[in-house]
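Repro:
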Amino acid sequence: MLAELKKTTELKMSKSIEAFKGDLSRVRTGRAHTGLLDHVSVDYYGTPTLLAQVAKVILLDARTIGVSPFEKKMIPAVEKAIRESDLGLNPATAGDTIRVPMPSLTEERRKELAKLAGQYAEKARIAVRNVRRDGMDHLKVDEKKHEISEDERKRLEVEVQKLTDDTIKEIDSAAHAKEQEILGQ
């Protein structure tokens, strides 16, 4: 049962990190990468569908993404979906391919994006601390039910705290790396 608690705590913390890294991947750094368009939804015959399911997304060069819809008549819908996404991109059609150039970032915009990365990191740290609190509460309940001893509870609380500290260090390091990438340092 205690191994199960530890396993679920680790799993929840790793899911918090995955969600955080997903949030970070959507923060634009001025460089093109295909993952930038992963969450863009296209109106595919009345059904919202992810861009990757209706088009091939490739890098044309370091600052340009190429999008080739599988069906030629989907070009206007794909272009509209990219333009209306929250990414601030301006796609242009060239034959069967939609070119999505990455605009260069101003210093002010870089600072805003770095701040956004920090907000995502704080949200992830809060999620991890909530998982820690739930684990600690669970241990106290088990102790009151006499399923574990006080010494065992204290030992397990130390393990949960160490896991929390390691997870927060990983979040901080990923956030710092993303901020450096955004600020171009």
